Amino acid sequence: MRTLCASTLIGEFFVVGFAGLVAMKDPDLSMTTVWTVSGIAMVLCLLLCGVITRPGGVQLGWGLQVLLIASGFVVPVMFFLGAVFAALWWASVHYGRKVEEAKARFAAQAGVGG
Q1: pLDDT of 97-109, one tens digit each?
Q2: Nearest Cα to 89, choosing from 43, 45, 39, 55?
Q3: Report field, pTM of the whole predicted structure over 0.85
Q4: How many CB atoms lie within 10 A of CB 97?
Q5: What pLDDT score does 69 carry?
Q6: Is residue 74 pLDDT above 70, yes or no?
Q7: I want to staple 57 with a disulfide (CB 3.0 to 4.6 A). Which of 52, 65, 77, 91 is the partner?
Q8: Three-class SS of the chain
Q9: Positive or negative CA dihedral for 3, 17, 65, 90?
Q10: pLDDT tens readout for residues 15-61
């Protein structure tokens, strides 16, 4: 699960950075505000890569997905991209857990047979 979730978070890191570039074109937003918010979100993406397997890590990831979708109020295309990444996050968690379960079953079978 960790590899799939971390891959999704790294993709989000770049998308948030590019969204920051787009948000800079909004005359109502200062560059400081855009890069403070974008920078915090980018750092969260990286930090979550390290804590994804700890208790609450997946829930923090879901919180980040909500924030990513909500950023669509500033950069409208983020409604779509946020939804895409939320779907990728779900798939990473869901299938990552299935892979871990399959690995555990395989290891148990190999231990019994050997």
Answers
A1: 999 999 999 989 9
A2: 45
A3: yes
A4: 13
A5: 96
A6: yes
A7: 52
A8: CHHHHHHHHHHHHHHHHHHHHHHCCCCCCCHHHHHHHHHHHHHHHHHHHHHCCCCCHHHHHHHHHHHHHHHHHCCCHHHHHHHHHHHHHHHHHHHHHHHHHHHHHHHHHHHHHC
A9: negative
A10: 999 999 999 999 999 999 999 999 999 999 999 999 999 999 999 99
Q: Which residue has the tokens 């930090």?
A: 47
The string over 57-79, giving b where at least 16 C-beta atoms fall within 10 Å of a residue's C-beta and e elsewhere, is: bbeebeebbebbbebbebbeebe
Q: What's the token pair of residue 64?
A: 């980040």
CA geometry: angle at 56 spanning 85 and 89, to 5°?
15
CA gap 18, 65 in Å, rounded: 16
Say how far residue 69 (Cα) sits from the centre of its chain. Answer: 11
Six-digit token pair at 84?
A: 């895409």
* Residue written as token pair 């948030």: 16
